[in-house]
Amino acid sequence: MAKAYKMFVGGSFVRSESGRYVQVRGSPAESADPQVVNVPRGSRKDARDAVVAARAAADGWAARTAYNRGQILYRLAEVMESRAGELRASLVRAGVPTRDASREVDVAVDRAVYYAGFCDKFQALLASHNPVSGPHFGFSLVEPMGVVAVVAPARPALLGLVSAVLPVVAGGNVCVVVAGADDPRTAVLWCECLATSDVPGGVVNVLTGEAAEIAPHLAKHREVAALDAWSADRALLVALERDASGSVKRVRTHDETAASRIASDAGQGLGFIETFLETKTVWHPVGT
Amino acid sequence: MTTRESSLSRYGSSTRAAPVPIFYPARPPVDQVGVEERAASLAKRSLKKASKVAALRLAVRMMDLTTLEGKDTPGKVRALSRKAAAPLATDATLGFCAAICVYPNLVPVAKRALAGTTVKVASVATAFPSGQSPLDVKLADVRRAVELGADEIDMVIDRGAMLAGEYTRVFEEIAATKEACAGAHLKVILETGELGAYDVVRRASEIAIAAGADFIKTSTGKISPAATPAVTLVMLEAIRDTYVATGRRIGMKPAGGVRTAKQAIHYLVLVKETLGDAWLTPELFRFGASALLNDVLMQLEKERTGVYQAAEDFSKD
Questions:
Q1: pLDDT digit of tens for each residue in chain B (317 aa)?
Q2: Do A220 and B310 touch (CB under 8 A)?
Q3: A194 closest CA partner among A68, A81, A80, A70
Q4: Which chain A residue shows the shortest CA-CA distance from B309?
Q5: pTM for the complete prediction?
Q6: Cα B280 off chain centre by
Q7: Residue A112: what pLDDT?
Q8: Which of B48, B300, B307, B316 to mutate to test the interface with A (most CBs of A within 10 A)?
């Protein structure tokens, strides 16, 4: 049975409002699937709708306890592990050697567990009790920024997506993701993991299509608080930084070699969470 | 002529210059499927660029900015009044909202806040939102609201009486309210979400129009479903038939549930297609809304700047 690949917005699988598709070719070795499948080509308005869905989910996600966010991401890791075979087959279909595909799925599951564990721990590492000159406490606390746009790396298709998205949502943000164009089918499959774990609809929204078309609208969008751009296209990164300047958005770009390090320990860490947090400092008088 | 009908005619003719038939003869029942399909098909029209901007600017001028909550304070009403008088700081040419709609106790606050502007003050009355009080209490409510300075009165009909088939009572209450308004504009809220069927909505519209309503209005905003395109279309058709039969122009006000700019444009298309350009004016069409204004302003700013806007950049009412 031919599968209809759809984007994941607000917890539902949707076609592009534009009705457009891109054709994705499978590897020649593949026989069970059609050689060419249609994947939605997301548009400006899809990006707009995804931001609305994300914004609607933002307050609820941020208001959950950090512990609960950790439980939910751990559940996601469980679902990814139970679907490991499917994820592996999907990577192989897109041309990843079998051995590499197995390793990529294993690392992706580990990464989900890693960020699940970090959900209720990064606050203790990033917050501080500041020494101040006077009878006051000075606390600096971290808070999520809100809607974060993520341009996922093209490769590795699964691990790149997981490594870009999970630190953002572990920090209490919600995100609108433009999946890598090389293997959007695996991205859609990962969305099925999200949909069947307990991640609330709208917390992670994944658009497929061309980053160069969709991402500039996200960069300009005033509701989007920050942008994480893993694109290998230098010209696009420069354009995104310029577009983001209108709303003084926080932009993190990654150089071309970043994606190649993503499978190692350099591809995970507290820094990835910290980038998309705001620090709030409060003063409180001592003794009251 | 039965006693009931003659009673209706007597009241009907006493409140207007020319007598108007209360119940249109041989009107077929409202075609539910047809109405819903037509309302839905008119939602498919897509207005772009200059025409979209024109429609949204018109929608702002048609807005009855509303706050009807137990927790309303003078401060909130003053803030809302300021917003109604100057909705968008970046664009003074936008004009202002048609009215602000509040409870009677807050009418003087709104009146003072809007002094020197042409924004009207509308007050709900007649034991809003249920309408389940004795008539003399409801009329006193109306008179006090007018004394306090309301330019427009939004009354509720007695839905219990309507559903029990006591049409005369519904008619007489509206006619008496019209008299108590003493010149203030009367909008009659049918609360369509409680009437059940389009036929009842149509009949209630006809009764309200015959009894002297200047506007008919869908809902209080306290009941779901509130305004829907289909129910609005049924009411617009009652208005159209009245105009064809008598030349009298009745206004329409969908209220409650209209939250997005896209919905607002859909309603304007319904009006244009059912009643024509003559009704595309704040004198004959209003939106009863609160959240709608910010969404319309966001879309207008999007068209002006080319950038999607953030909700936090617009004042919360």
A1: 344 443 444 444 344 443 444 554 567 899 999 999 999 999 998 899 999 999 999 999 999 999 999 999 999 999 999 999 999 988 889 999 999 999 999 999 999 999 999 999 999 999 999 999 999 999 999 999 999 999 999 999 999 999 999 999 999 999 999 999 999 999 999 999 999 999 999 999 999 999 999 999 999 999 999 999 999 999 999 999 999 999 999 999 999 999 999 999 999 999 999 999 999 999 999 999 999 999 999 999 999 999 999 999 998 87
A2: no
A3: A80
A4: A222
A5: 0.89
A6: 14
A7: 98
A8: B307
**DSSP element (H, E) containing B127:** none
Complex ipTM value: 0.87
**Residue B191 in contact with residue B229, Cβ under 8 Å?**
no
Q: Which residues of A fall within a CB distance of 8 Å from B308?
A: 48, 51, 217, 220-223
Cα distance between residue B129 and residue B140, in whole Å: 16
Q: Which residue of A51, A55, A221 is in closest CB contact with B307?
A: A221
Q: Kindly determine whether residue A223 and residue B306, on different chains, have CB atoms separated by under 8 Å.
A: no
CA atoms of B22 and B201, how far apart (whole Å): 14
How many alpha carbons lie under 13 Å from residue B17 in its C-beta half-sphere? 3
Contact B307 A222 (CB under 8 A): yes
> What three-state secondary structure class fits B230?
helix
Rounded to the nearest 10 degrees, what angle do helices B261-275 and B229-246 cross at?
30
- Which of B307, B308, B313 is nearest residue A51 as measured by Cβ atoms? B308
HEC string for chain A: CCCCCCEEECCEEECCCCCCEEEEECCCCCCCCCCEEEEECCCHHHHHHHHHHHHHHHHHHHHCCHHHHHHHHHHHHHHHHHCHHHHHHHHHHCCCCHHHHHHHHHHHHHHHHHHHHHCCCHHHHHCEEECCCCCEEEEEEEEECCEEEEECCCCCHHHHHHHHHHHHHHCCCEEEEECCCCCHHHHHHHHHHHHHCCCCCCCEEEECCCHHHHHHHHHHCCCEEEEEECCCCHHHHHHHHHHHHCCCCEEEECCCCHHHHCCCHHHCCHHHHHCCEEEEEEEEECCC
